[in-house]
Structures are given as structure tokens and as C-alpha cells.
Amino acid sequence: EVQLVESGGGLVQPGGSLRLSCSASGFTFSTYAIHWVRQAPGKGLEYVSAISGTGGSTYYADSVKGRFTISRDNSKNTLYLQMSSLRSDDTALYYCVKDIGSYPYYMDVWGKGTTVTVSS
Amino acid sequence: EIVMTQSPATLSVSPGERATLSCRASQSVGNNLAWYQQKPGQAPRLLIYGASTRATGIPARFSGSGSGTEFTLTISSLQSEDFAVFFCQQYDNWPPWTFGQGTKVEIK
Q1: Predicted local confidence at residue B89, as pLDDT
Q2: A44–B97: do the CB atoms touch at under 8 Å?
Q3: Nearest-CA neighbor of B19 among B72, B56, B67?
Q4: Distance from CA of B98 to the nearest CA of A (A)
Q5: What does the longest C-alpha to C-alpha distance in chain A come to?
Q6: Which of A5, A32, A33, B43 has the most CB atoms around it within 10 Å of its CB?
Q7: Residue A110: which of B44, B49, B102 has the nearest Cβ?
Q8: What is the side-by-side strand order in the sheet with B62-67?
Q9: Which pLDDT belongs to residue B11?
Q10: In which element (H, E) is residue B87 found?
Q11: Mean local confidence (pLDDT), B93-99
Q12: Are the CB atoms for B67 and B31 separated by under 8 Å?
């Protein structure tokens, strides 16, 4: 069974940093692109970032470009999202989502998410 | 950036009735359109991809149609477990992958 388990969320002050992790199992991690998608409280879904299976290609939403960095360690079946210069509008539930192929296309399996709260 | 617009925002339907949800793209996305279902407190689940292909394990009462800029998700006979929020998403022109704002299907 494909599973994605996010961790690393928490309360952080504006301007602070946080690193999210996503541990994957049940599939050959290195052969699939993975996305981060977030959902602010009571709001819709917003794409954040994506990375190809090899890690050689990365993509970012304009709202996080220059502040967030996506990476992966295929030897550990783990995806990361390093977040810096956090703002209150980054407050959201962050989902790790598997793509259907090695390069980003569309998303199929979602993790349960980890909550990030940016507040003083 | 392609803007996805869903209507209506809320749809009140009785169990056993048909529900029809709409999704419009600001420019053509071909058939590169997915639908997701999100129940309260849960992660989204892929229902439809390629505008009309059901994902693995999705019941036949869910069907998708459309191409270009106009898309429809139809639930032929609503079951109690179907009440949720439904999102459409385009994956034709990215980044960014863009989602509609969602349609909440509630019990009438």
C-alpha cells in the first residue's frame, strides 16, 4: 500500500524557518515525482512545490519561490521542504502528494498532512 | 496562470439524487483535468483523471466529462459517504498546477 507520512510541522514565529519531511513507503520512491500542496484553514488547495523522481528538476509557486526549497533523499525514501522567511499566510496544512510518473504530471496519492502555524 | 472556477459553491442534494458539478478553466487545458474528493478531516482522494477516467477503486456512479475549458463531474445517485468537498485541478500548463475553489455537496 502506498503511504506518505508528513512530519515537522509546528508553531513558528514570522520570519522563522521550518523543515517538513515526508516519509514514503509502498512504492519505488525514486521513480516518482512528488508534490507539496497546502490548504489554509477553511480554504481550498494551493500547489506549493514539486520535484522530479531523480531530484534534478524542481518547481515552485510564485508565492514561495526564493523562500522554500524542495529536495529529496531517494536512499531514505524521504522528501523535504525547507521553509524560511515564513509569513502568516504560510499557515496551512501541508500535504505530500505522489505523482503518477517520474516527472510531474498529476497527483494521485495524498498523505494526511502536517500543520504549520506562523504566528507570534 | 490558468484559473479554475467551480460552480456552484454549495450543492444541496438528497441521497439517491444526481449531483452535477461544474469546473471551468480560464484557457483550454485539453483533457488534462482531475477531480478530487475531500471529506472532513481527511486528505483529498483522486476520483477522475484525464477528465473522464475513474481512478482505481472509484465507483461507477462517479463520472467526468468535458474538454477544453468546460468540465463536469456527475454523481449519478448520491450515497451517504459521497457528501464532501470536490475540487477540480488542471495539469495541462504548469507550474503552477491550479485547483478550483471547491464545491461542497451537502445533504438536503
Answers
A1: 98
A2: no
A3: B72
A4: 7
A5: 40
A6: A33
A7: B44
A8: B4-7, B19-25, B70-75, B62-67
A9: 97
A10: strand B84-90
A11: 93
A12: yes
Main-chain dihedrals φ then ψ at residue A29, nearest 5 degrees? -55, -45
Of B46, B94, B99, Cβ closest to residue A45: B99
Task: Pick B46's closest partner by Cβ from A61, A95, A108.
Answer: A108
**Predicted pLDDT of residue B26:** 98
pLDDT tens digits for range B40-56: 989 999 999 999 999 99
Question: Chain A residue with minimal CA distance to B40?
Answer: A42
A111/B44 Cβ within 8 A: no
As given in the structure block, the three cell numbers for residue B64 are 467526468
Tell me: the pLDDT tens digits for B17-26? 999 999 999 9
Per-residue pLDDT tens for B73-92? Answer: 999 999 999 999 999 999 99
